[in-house]
Design brief:
The structure holds 2 protein chains of 2 kinds.
Chain A (H helix, E strand, L loop, with lengths): L1 E10 L2 E11 L4 E5 L6 H8 L7 E6 L2 E2 L5 H8 L2 E4 L11 H12 L4 H14 L15 H13 L5 E5 L7 H18 L2 E6 L2 H7 L2 E6 L2 E6 L10 H7 L3 H10 L1
Parallel strand pairs in A: 3-8, 3-9, 6-7, 7-8
Antiparallel strand pairs in A: 1-2, 1-4, 4-5, 9-10
Helix pairs in contact in A: 3-4, 3-5, 4-5, 5-6, 6-7
Chain B lengths: L1 H16 L6 H16 L3 H22 L8 H41 L2 H7 L4 H39 L4 H9 L5 H26 L5 H31 L2
Helix pairs in contact in B: 1-6, 2-6, 3-4, 3-6, 4-6, 4-7, 4-8, 4-9, 6-7, 6-8, 8-9
Classes of the chains: A alpha/beta, B mainly alpha.
The structure holds adenosine-5'-triphosphate and magnesium ion.
Chain lengths: 251, 247
């Protein structure tokens, strides 16, 4: 469980997050949605401490991360798994080395044990026979999956994904979404996913936070989103012809 | 003012870099990798420039000696002392600042803009220490060997030039390079090399580590890393010389 209390963040006077209050629940895929530039990445990075927040508080299972010393933060961070918007794979390391990285750093397992784990998580994201390729040698979708594999290698308690399926075709996107949801439920992880993809929203949105220009505009789930009562959210949800057609067919 | 900010941030980065390593075995492996990448890979360039510089110094010195009363062994002596005092430490340092420095700044800068450094931080890793510490240690370890190599190769280059051009006999040259040899000069040269090794690695690392933006900024950081480390090398060259050679 990750709890946000009145989280605020500004960059040189310009407010990007204007007081976010929400509880992201354990074992659920929590989504942060919103238009490009609405503050999703900033919020996610604020939660994990890559940005220091200006006001408010962030708690990880009641542990006050915001007012914690760096040394203690590092401990909690070892419970994090993060998939960056751009993948952020170590480009001088192979797929296998990327996934094994945190195992090398934080466990004393033998190489065989680590390799077992690496192959297990790679299989989990449907990647086989790519162990010795470099990130530049695999496709964008595969890179995303390696990033997910790397994020879950150490059995994280908290999983963060910044637009895990952006730039992918809808089918691959859904595969990745479902993968994230399955992992979340299987290991009872608190997962937060940033997305502006309505496919993801309707597929995996257990709990959804809609950001509008840095404001918390609406909170609900994937079933409630079509009747949110928020004009801004409706504009977002029904932005495409496809969604409008579906809506009209329902009427 | 800006200089002060830079200095403060550089200092903070170094404090982070020299924090207790999180896992010694991994740091050891990284250091070995860096020794290969920063040191072994530089042997070629150090070898080539040292040979030619030794040769040129020898020929120039010989052709400038017009007074027949000046003994010819001075040529060997000049070649030796120039290599030891200045060339093998300072000039090689400047050249490595260009080669190694730009490499380090662009590698770390790219990792910054592609969020690889953030990824390390999020895993709970001290990214500064993990990325920079092995590079500094590797250079401090391997550069003295490059320095020695440069001295030997340079002096040998002088000999080859002297003999093959007929400008000087082997006997004169050998006598010269043995004449009035001061071992302390080697110590002085080594001290400079170690200090320069620190500058060549830490300054570009600093510029790479704090890049903001994209590929363009990485390029700029790389240039800045080389320029500033070169300036610092020249500055510390004067300081160390004053401290160690002033009578
Ligand atoms: N480091 C920063 N410094 C200054 N402003 C920033 C910084 N990072 C983000 N911003 C600003 O914060 C706002 C929100 O950006 P953010 O990256 O969170 O958007 P986003 O919702 O993730 O968009 P996208 O869907 O395109 O990824 C933008 O207006 C951006 O300019
Ligand atoms: Mg974003």
């Amino acid at each position: 469980m990750i709890e946000l209390k009145n989280v605020r963040k500004a960059f040189s006077g310009r407010e990007v997050l204007k007081g976010i209050n929400i509880v992201f629940e354990k074992g659920k895929t929590n989504l942060i949605i919103g238009q490009s530039g609405s503050g999703k990445t900033v919020l996610l990075k604020s939660i994990i401490g890559l940005h220091e927040i200006d006001d408010g508080q962030i708690l990880f299972d009641n542990r006050d991360f915001t007012h914690m010393r760096n040394r203690d933060r590092k401990k909690i961070r070892q419970e994090f798994g993060m998939v960056f918007q751009g993948g952020a794979l170590f480009d001088s390391a192979t797929v296998e080395e990327n996934v094994m990285f945190s195992l090398n750093m934080f466990t004393d397992k033998t190489y065989e044990e680590k390799l077992d784990r690496v192959n297990f998580v790679l299989k989990r994201v449907n990647l086989v026979n790519v162990n010795h390729l470099f990130p530049s040698e695999i496709s964008g979708g595969m890179q995303k999956r390696v990033a997910i594999a790397r994020a879950i290698a150490l059995n994280p308690r908290y999983l963060f994904c910044d637009e895990p399926n952006s730039g992918l075709d809808p089918k691959t996107g859904i595969v990745i979404d479902n993968l994230i949801r399955e992992i979340t439920e299987e290991y009872n992880i608190t997962t937060i996913v940033n997305t502006h993809d309505m496919n993801s929203v309707t597929e995996i949105g257990d709990k959804i936070l809609y950001l509008y220009l840095g404001e918390q505009n609406w909170v609900g789930n994937k079933d409630e989103i079509f009747n949110s009562g928020s004009e801004q959210l409706d504009n977002f949800v029904f932005a495409t012809t496809l969604m409008r057609k579906i809506k009209n067919n329902f009427k | 003012m800006k200089l002060l900010t830079h200095f403060g941030r550089y200092y903070m980065l170094m404090a982070k870099t020299f924090a207790k390593p999180q896992k010694n075995s991994i740091y050891f492996k990284q250091t070995i990798k860096e020794i290969d990448k920063l040191g072994i890979n530089s042997i070629g360039i150090v070898f080539i420039i040292s040979v030619f510089m030794g040769a040129v110094i020898t020929l120039q010195t010989r052709y400038n000696l017009e007074n027949p009363l000046i003994p010819l062994y001075l040529v060997g002596l000049t070649a030796r002392d120039t290599m030891i005092l200045e060339f093998s430490s300072t000039i090689v340092g400047l050249i490595l600042a260009g080669k190694v420095g730009s490499n380090i700044a662009s590698e770390i800068g790219t990792m910054r803009v592609t969020e690889q450094i953030d990824a390390l931080e999020i895993m709970g890793i001290n990214s500064a220490s993990y990325l920079i510490f092995p590079k500094i240690i590797a250079a401090i370890f391997i550069n003295p060997f490059l320095n020695i190599l440069s001295m030997f190769v340079g002096i040998a280059g002088g000999w080859v030039a002297a003999v093959s051009s007929g400008a000087l006999s082997t006997a004169d040259y050998l006598y010269g390079i043995h004449y009035a040899f001061i071992p302390y000069y080697i110590v002085y040269s080594m001290v400079k090399t170690v200090v320069f090794a620190f500058i060549i690695t830490s300054v570009p690392a600093y510029h790479g580590f704090y890049v903001k933006g994209g590929a363009l900024e990485v390029g700029k950081a790389s240039t800045k890393g080389v320029v500033y480390s070169s300036i610092l090398i020249l500055l510390f060259n004067v300081i160390i010389t004053q401290l160690m050679l002033a009578k």
